[in-house]
Each structure stands twice: as structure tokens, then as C-alpha cells.
Amino acid sequence: MFIVSACLAGVKCKYNAEDNLHPQIRELLKQERVQLVCPEQLGGLSTPRCPAEIAGGSGEDVWSGKAQVLTREGTDVTGNFIRGGEETLRIARLLGAKGAILKEGSPSCGSSLIYDGTFQGVKKPGQGVTAALLRKEGLKVYSENDFAE
Ligand code: SF4
What mean pLDDT comes out for the span 84-103? Predict the structure, then answer.
């Protein structure tokens, strides 16, 4: 069993109430091989919601208190992102999940790229808040671009 970003399977849980449907991942869902999660919804954020990015660091820095997650309007949603990561980890442990396939680029789910905090559409190397926690706790984390490998 793998944890999967719900938006990759077609759930409209993105900040703008859209999805990031990936046909191969929807196929894994049909085969009952994955458990869907949306860390931002699990953290108590609504859909649609104001987009958020990590300011001043990456997911690891959020967990060590060195960076925050801010919305485009400047609201601090760090607590929601932390809660979403913790709940995702809880679900992974309850299921005995081997790993996760998470949406690349997201401030929660990005596994090798995240937006740079300027809301200009610029990405930089780094992990999102949930991806960083799952990796720290020993789960393998893939994106939609590399899970097939
Ligand atoms: Fe998709 Fe993750 Fe963003 Fe939820 S938090 S919409 S699962 S990328």
C-alpha cells in the first residue's frame, strides 16, 4: 500500500478546487493499491483556499521552526501544514504503508521541488512539509514523475 496525493487521482482538492489527474495513478486507485490523502485538507484548510508557499526555506526548515508557510495574502498557515503532515504520517503508519507518491512542486507534497515563496511561479530544489516528514520517518517518497521507476 502506498499513500498518494489525492489530487493525482482526480480529487478536486487543490487550492483552486481543481485536480492534478495522472491516469496511471488513477489506475493504481482502481486496483486498490493506494490510499488517498490531501495533507492540506487534513490540516484543516478549506477548498478552495488561498495558495500558500514556504517562505525562507523548505519543508525541513518548517519542521525545525526556521521557516513558515504563508498564503499569498500573508496569513501564516504553518500550523495547518504541520497538522496535515502529522495526520498523513498517522494514516501511513495505520496502514503500514511502504511509501508515498506525492504531487511534485507542492508546499506540502513536493518531493524534490517547491515554489520559492515569491508567488511568481518559480520553483527551487526542496521538499514540501509532508514529504519532508515522511522521509524523515523512513518512508520512501516518490513524485508522479518518478514513481514508475
Ligand atoms: Fe494535492 Fe498535496 Fe496539494 Fe492536497 S496538499 S492538493 S494532495 S498537492
Answer: 98
Per the structure, the complete domain to which residue 91 belongs is given by: 2-143
Across the chain, mean pLDDT equals: 97
- Number of folded domains in the chain? 1
Residue 49 scores a pLDDT above 90: yes
Q: Ligand 1 pocket test: which of 5, 37, 83, 113 has the largest number of ligand atoms within 8 Å of its C-beta?
A: 5
Question: Measured from the CB, is residue 40 less than 6 Å from ligand 1?
Answer: yes
Q: For residue 107, how far is its CA from the centre of ligand 1 (angstroms)?
A: 9
> Which element (helix H / strand E) includes 63?
helix 59-63
1: Cβ–Cβ under 8 A, 6 or more apart, which residues? Answer: 33, 34, 35, 95, 96, 97, 98
Q: What is the mean pLDDT of residues 111-122?
A: 97
